[in-house]
Protein 1
Amino acid sequence: MDFGLKEIGLTLLIGAFTISGFELILRYVFNKSAIGFLENNMRFIPGAKAPPNESAGTRNDEKTMSALVFLGFSFLFGLLAEDISYKYEDSVQMPFKSIPAMTVKLLSQSVREQMGFEHILSRFDSRISTLVGNLAETPKITPLAKELAQSEAFRKVDQDKGKKVEAWIKKPTNLMADSTSDGELSQKDVAASITGLYYLAKNQVYGNANYYDEMKRIQSRLEFSRSISMIAFLYLLFGLALSSVSLIYKVLAPIFYNRKKAIDKSILKT
């Protein structure tokens, strides 16, 4: 990982978001704190207690130490969150990607196409759907894909499969999901060919210093947004689960308490 100043800053932001979200969930649901940084430095949190009367120097030293510890944990959890998001970078089956896709299904196909949401329903990532649409349904070959096939770009990755992919792009048909014994082209073959061409083109572009800087900035933003969206989705599920448990406890606890109290009274009368 390239630890430039900006990359470190983005990693710290991701880690701070991770810690702050966990702290807020614990505070609002259980009135507890994990590391106490938000409790001691942000008075808007319900139940947060003011620090005892101490000298100004002592309070400043504690705040400085608390800030350093928070930054350290932020960097650590930021790295962990980024590494986890890298693992699922090319996956479209992650819940924070697939659940919005279930909502998009409620829209008509024409509306999805107009809003640019058609690729969300594809089981392949956006690199594939950008060129050939949804392979699992009726493929929609884009002008860019036709230009790449016309220039014989796909055979630069795989000579044999590349020729088949180029011929298929010129005359598209519905494909089987996986390769068959007779060697017919499949959805998996097309996806692998497009992905291979993507990485080949990416390596060529990154070889140019000007393009490298621009693409690096774009990649940093994508990695940041991917990590934040993953953490936010996990915290949404985590918060809903804990809130449900807390709500059930608050509803059932008085009932069991009153029942126990009534049983104790009946025992005392006997």
Protein 2
Amino acid sequence: MLSNICSIVKAAPRVRSRKKGALRLPLVRAIAGFAIGALLAACGGGPYAGYAAYGGSAHADAAAGKVYQPLAMGNLWKFTCNHLFPITDRVVGTYHVKTHLVYALSLQIPSSPTKSTYVIQLLANDSKGNTWIYGYLIHGKVHAVTPTEIVAAKPVPYRYYDYPAPMHGTITRQFLQFEDTNRTPLGVFWVAPYFDSDRTHNYGYSLGRGVMEEDHGPQYKYDCLIEKYVLH
């Protein structure tokens, strides 16, 4: 009986499918992942071999010491949203906030196929691989905020990683559970997704690569899949 179950589990492809606009179900996937992990512990392999029950992967192990948000001048991530229009996030410069060297990450946030808002965050990675926000670049000037961890090296499921907004207030950010991206032109990636502004936006970070998929809402209206990325 167990051998039959093992053969079925081992044959199952490790790809999830999500319809446009459909809510992701991280808790369901976490339970399923835990069950599959337990089965494979007994079965001893299959396409999930090397993956923890949740949160880890063979890719993550191989990328030990890397960060979820690589920061260097010239880094860029180009996405195609809904197979219709492109957006690009890129590191556009370096600055100092007090004694901290920070990198200016320009984020393109679409509200329609022809209209986007650009937000430039001032970020730095610490020695443990956590990414911190130190401020924003607004009209060419540094606007400092209270330093806040924005991407964790070891994110805790369902924890909030809220951070200061550009002008005033706070942007809510929550990590739910690790998951696969939708299939992108570069393949499927195991990511740590963070949901911002009451899940209006989300960013899926792949260890050592950066964001491989981002969604912009409401209700994940624009699904933006990585098409090209350049790291220095």
Protein 3
Amino acid sequence: MASCNITSFSTSSVTANISGLSNYWDDRYYENAYITCNGQTSAPVYPPAEGSPTAFGYSTPSMTRTGTYTSGTFVVDAYVVATNGETYPAGSASFYIAPPDPDPTRPNNFTGFDWMFTGNPMPTYLGSPSPCSASLWNQFTARINSFRAYKSLSQYTFTPATQGANSLALQQQQARAAISNMSPPTSLPVVAVAGGPVRILKGLATSLNSIP
């Protein structure tokens, strides 16, 4: 089943590709592919010729849609055009842009993980579906970047979470690294490892919220 995968996004663009195509990505089966977001369509990408060394297997190359994504949740829809002239949906994904923080000097504390507590291992493990929704995780990383802006640091590029995808150690490691640069008074939890419990989510938020 084809799926849309967001690889990066900002307030001015979103980049995604399609994986899991039912046929090989070449000109025997497809004419082009494209994504839409917020009512705007990307430039299409075209498949290579059959047998080309630049073939992508059952995935398309990345497509970028530029636009203005000020705040909120935005949905990216992917499509492929087959050689029979028909257009087929190829999955959807969403990303979240945090609104400007009401406090211009210090972002508000992140409270989305307050229902967790750090001393109890969560029943879900990295590499399986997370108890934290993709939207909530993306809100958390957006808040980290709000704190980084407050501390005059560059924006950190996070791997966005996608609803239904597995929780990745990489995503937690990125969050830890982005917070660590700000020297939080409350120590960060240990680095996440593949297959480990996801209990460090609350610890990450607690450390972030300790930044004065």
Protein 4
Amino acid sequence: MGPTESITTRMLKADQTEALEDAVMEDENVQIAAEKSLSDVSEEMNIPTRDMKKTENVRKSKEAEKVEGKKESVLIRKEAADLASDFNKRPQNIPYRLDEEALTELLTNVLVGTDRIPDGAPPQTYINEIVYSMTVAGRPPDPVQVDRTFDFLTEGVRNRLDKVKVRQTEIKLLQARGSKTDDEMQKLTNLYTDLVKEEQRLTNVLTTVGLAKTQYYQAHRKEVEVGHKVIGAADALAEVSEGEVSEKLDYLREVIHKPEDLLTKYNNYKSLGYKTAEIKRDTDTLLDFLGTEFRRKEEIPPPEMHVLMQETRKGQAILQLIRLFKKQEKLYHKLCLSKGFEPPPLDHEFFIENFLKMVADRYPSRERMTQLISASMRPLLTQATLKI
């Protein structure tokens, strides 16, 4: 009887256990179905569930970060624009004529970090970006303009770095006071961590900008050194005549490194189509600038100053020649009429050019002077003979 009861008992217990398991499984399935149904209904009726609330919080957090990032970018651009305006208004920077909008865009990209200037970019990337940003109408900037733009970037990055350090100090003070909730303290800790990372990034950027400036200077040393010395003269010439500062800098460098003789200078004026007024304007402008530099005792060294003074003397000599031949034109007319023929038109440029050839002759002689004078007078005599 006992064994039979024992087996029966075990069978009953097994049946009970199986029924219990089925009931539990059924409950779990019901719960899963209920949760799924609740989720479907919640989505349909826009009622947030616990998981949906978590997702929504994450989404809102990311959106807040984006908004904060945009605000920071706008603030940085405003700071860059203010610095660009102030930088260009400084007396020592005015002659460089740097584009204010290009400076603003360049500094903003450097501070924010973009695809064009990513974090960790090599020095050459900064050089390329400056040249690209400062190119106007297909003409690249002058080396001194690029060098001065590096000074602007250095100042802008350093200013931003100083502000980050000040913000770090402010957060440390807030943390030291301790009168904050745990959430607020955590936010301060996170913000401080972000500022430390930003400080490191800006420090690396500042170092790279310095390396880029040095690299560019070494590659364009002569142009940069001479350009900084004569930038004021280039600006003065560009102010009174057509052309960019970079063109006038090229002209002045050519003057300093390869001074022209009188004849070459006169022929260059002719090729440019310059008349007496234009030659006088350029000569007077350069002379006024050098006179100002003498009074201010600026940093143009004596050798360069001597060459530039010689250049103004050449311009004055050409002007005197033009005036001389125009002044003697009346005498020429009288002499022709006294000989009984109508005076042919007088080509001043032809006479000036031949006169300069005589002056430029290293070994003058009576025979050579006679040949040049005969060559100058022959066209006039031929025309006079034809008229007679």
